[in-house]
Write a structure and sequence with these properties.
GO terms for molecular function: cysteine desulfurase activity; pyridoxal phosphate binding. By secondary structure, this protein is α/β, with parallel strands linked by helices. The protein has 15 helices and 15 strands. A seven-stranded mixed beta sheet has the order 2-8-7-6-5-3-4, sandwiched between helices. The longest helix is centred in the first third of the chain and has 21 residues. Bound molecules: pyridoxal-5'-phosphate (PLP).
């Protein structure tokens, strides 16, 4: 349906490649290419610095993207949106910024579903401060077990960091309930929306989270750009963590004072062309009927699950709610399978998906992951299944 809006898909098809790795990064709509072409061919300028007309125009367009992102995720204020280089950088910013609020014996609640980006910064913080990581249990279907979770919140819980949608299992997590529990216990909540923002309508106020993080490149936007949402007063309690141009109010030889959020977290020249490109992607997404997109993705997910379940020896991991499925095959190594799929033009992810603790929890060495974008089509999955059958005929 929306396939033709993504020029790279025709180029990939011409090379015989079927792209089923959109959870790693998404293909880009023509609107993004046009925005980049326009900006880069009609005059670049730095933002927030110079007073001439061209710089003002680029700064206005850059700041308009902050408004668009705020509206896209339901933030109360535009200055609750911080542009970072990636989701990963946003988690690191938080883990450094929150350091002074975490003390020895404090507990940080995480789930075993977390991507390393939403695990390692907290692991390092816990090690620096003598805090403890506490793990929320998950059910066989790959959902955080709320009954068990509620018992794990204690007066020592200082922070909850959870994914909205697992990048390995495709399971949607009860983040609203968890964030509410965190608030009731005086703990801060951080939601990893890197996958969730792509496949569900996000309203950070309805989610009741303190911080929400995602990467533009998975949301049909450019790479090199992440977004950190934080409640206004909380962001302003965090110290800056990178220092340099444009994040300051006043600098003397020996000291400096800093801007309020978000600019205090945007030291140096930001990724200007990426921000302008994201603005175009969001404008494109606004033209779509998002419930039609969700229905389309749900049909494809069902086709994917059914097809996998029909094949002997194939076992899905968890029970996906959205847009991606990981699976293992009895007696077949995921790397061998990925190679045979690649030889037939099928681009899927294989390995541990930056989630080693989850793999250990599930007791598997790795898996194969098929993930969909709004541009994916039933024919893509048909080609995948043909290739899978060919591969399994050789490997099983
Ligand atoms: C759930 C989740 N969180 C965080 C990340 C990290 O995103 P990035 O590599 O863009 O910083 C990813 C990327 O795969 C992800 O899937």
């Amino acid at each position: 349906m929306w396939h033709n809006d993504f020029p790279a898909l025709a180029a990939l098809a011409a090379r015989g490649i079927t792209y089923l790795d959109s959870a790693a990064t998404a293909q880009k709509p023509a609107a993004l290419l046009l925005a980049l072409q326009t900006y880069l061919s009609q005059g670049a300028a730095n933002v927030h610095r110079a007073g001439y007309r061209l710089a003002d125009e680029v700064t206005s367009a850059f700041e308009a993207c902050r408004d668009d992102v705020a509206a896209f995720i339901g933030a109360a204020q535009r200055d609750e949106i911080v542009f970072t280089r990636s989701a990963t950088e946003a988690f690191n910013l938080l883990a450094y910024g929150l350091e002074a609020q975490i003390n020895a014996g404090d507990e940080l609640l995480l789930s075993p579903l977390e991507h390393h980006a939403n695990l390692l910064p907290w692991q390092q913080l816990a090690a620096r401060r003598g805090a403890k990581l506490v793990w929320l249990p998950i059910s066989a279907s790959g959902h955080i077990d709320m009954a068990a979770a509620s018992a794990l919140f204690t007066p020592r819980t200082k922070l909850l960091a959870v994914t909205q949608l697992s990048n390995v299992l495709g399971t949607l997590q009860p983040v609203r309930e968890l964030c509410t529990l965190a608030a009731q216990h005086g703990a801060l909540s951080v939601v990893d929306g890197a996958q969730g923002v792509v496949h569900s309508s996000v309203d950070v106020r309805a989610l009741d989270c303190d911080f929400y993080v995602f990467s533009a490149h998975k949301l049909y936007g450019p790479d090199g750009l992440g977004v950190l949402y934080g409640r206004h007063h909380l962001l302003n309690q965090l110290p800056p963590w990178q220092f340099g141009g444009e994040m300051v109010l006043q600098v003397s030889r020996d000291s400096a004072s800093f801007q309020a959020a978000p600019l205090r977290f945007e030291a140096g020249t930001p990724p200007i062309s990426a921000v302008l490109a994201l603005r175009a992607s969001l404008a494109y997404l606004r033209t779509l009927d998002r419930s039609a997109v969700a229905a389309h993705e749900a049909l494809l997910l069902q086709q994917l699950k059914t097809g996998l379940d029909q094949r002997a020896g194939v076992r899905r991991l968890g029970d996906s709610d959205a847009a991606l499925v990981s699976f293992v095959v009895d007696g077949v190594h995921h790397a061998d399978l990925a190679q045979l799929l690649d030889e037939q033009g099928i681009a899927v992810r294989s390995g541990q998906h930056c989630a080693h603790p989850l793999m250990a929890t599930l007791g598997v060495a790795g898996s194969t992951r098929v993930s969909l974008g709004l541009y994916s089509q039933a024919a893509d999955l048909e080609r995948f299944f043909t290739a899978l059958d060919n591969a399994l005929a050789l490997l099983q």
